[in-house]
Every structure is written in C-alpha cells, then in structure tokens.
Amino acid sequence: MAYPRQNLNKAVRALIRDIAAKMPEFSHVKASRILVVAGEARRASRGTVKPLCFRGGRCTDPSGRRKPVIRIQGRRMLYCITLRPRFFRASTPQGRVQTVMHELFHMSRRFDGTLHAGRRHSVLGEDFYRQLKPLVRRYLKQCPPELLEALARSEEVRVFQWLERPGPAYVPGTFRGRTVYTEEQLYYGIVRMVTHKRPEVKLAKPRRKERVEKERVH
After folding, report:
1. Which end of the chain is more exposed for a tag (fewer CB within 10 A), N or C?
2. How confident is the model at residue 200 (pLDDT cuts 50, 70, 90)?
3. Mean pLDDT of 162-169
C-alpha cells in the first residue's frame, strides 16, 4: 500500500509559525506571507530568501521599477524562501531548522517585503552566525517533537516548485512578460529527502597509564 507523501510546505509553515510564536526576535514574522519553494543548487547554499517588495511594501521604487506580484490564495506574498538541494540531501533535522531561521533572520523587522540592511553577510561577516546560533539553540530546546520529526524523514516529500519563475524588477512599458504570479505558476514537485543524524560524540579511551591509576584508586 502506497502512503501519501508528506507536504513539506505545511511542515515548514507550521515551523515558521511556532518560531514566530515562541521567539520574540521573530515575532514580526507571518508565515502566511512567506512562499516556500524547492529550487536548484546555488553553490553550497541550503536556502535563500528573496524580498518581493520595495521598502514599505511597495511594488514600485522611486525610479519607477516594479517587482512582479506573487499571490497565493489571493494573498500577496512578501518573501520567497527557496530550499536548495543540500537542505534535502545533506542536513540534519536541527540543521533544517537552522536553515529556516537563517532565512527568517535576514528579513526586515518591518516585515514589509524587504531585507534587514544590517543583517547582510557582507555587513556582519562571521558575526551573522554568532548572532544567529544562540537563537537557534534556544529555539531547539522548545521546538515541539512533531515539528522536528517532520524534518527528520528520509523519504519522498511534496513541495512547491516553479513552473514559471518570476523575474527581477522591470520598467513598465518596456516589459512584456508576466507581472502577476499565482498557484497557476506553481506545482507540487516530488523531492527525495535524505536525513543525516547528528554525529555522536565518542569519548576517547583512557590511556594505559590512566587505566592503571584508576584501578589503583578503586
């Protein structure tokens, strides 16, 4: 009997909601305004986030350029998180949580479809991870087991992929492509998820001299 494949979009959406509910640093995040898709490899990245608006949630910038609009179930999306192959094939469940939190950490505190200017890797360098990792550790201590279990499977899952991917900002009047994207431009693709377990820390065997001393003590 064939079992239905897990809907990874639902699992990640539930994770984002829980992070926003339990972590004050992410309380501005709204899972319903974030689109999650699976995409192609980009160097060694496990995930990336794309801002879908200009400052203030606007579609148009001062120069007149416009960004394509993405609407899912009639609601405009503000961000698109793309999960890369290494998220599916070379991650632990805890690592997948970190990837999602990593992308959420890039989002503006205004949650207006733009990125946080002070949290770019080019600005923070290694400090980005020094700020992020304590948040990940704190959340993992309170992450519900069922959310972690949903990211711990080694099986095929269903996840949104683009049939037609939105392009960059354009200048109205000179662009003839699609300007509004909906579920019609998405489909549920099948992705094989392979989960790696956290390596167990093995204690080194005591040296012969240490063993002798312990035996004498006992």
Report:
1. N
2. very low
3. 95
* Per-residue DSSP letter, 12: H
- Which of 200, 216, 197 lies closest to 208, judged by CA? 216
Statement: residue 157 has pLDDT above 50:
yes
Contacts of 189 (CB under 8 A, 6+ apart): 38, 158, 159, 160, 161
Q: Model-level pTM greater than 0.85?
A: yes
Nearby residues of 94 by Cβ (< 8 Å), 6 or more positions away = 136, 140, 148, 198
Q: Where are the beta strands (DSSP E) in 73-216?
A: 75-76, 79-83, 155-162, 180-181, 186-193
Contact in structure between 9 and 36 (CB atoms under 8 Å): yes
CB within 8 A of 66, min separation 6: which ones? 59, 60, 169, 170, 171, 172, 179
How big is the chain, counted in residues?
218
Q: How confident is the model at residue 69 (pLDDT cuts 50, 70, 90)?
A: very high
Residue 207's pLDDT band, with cuts at 50, 70 and 90, is: low
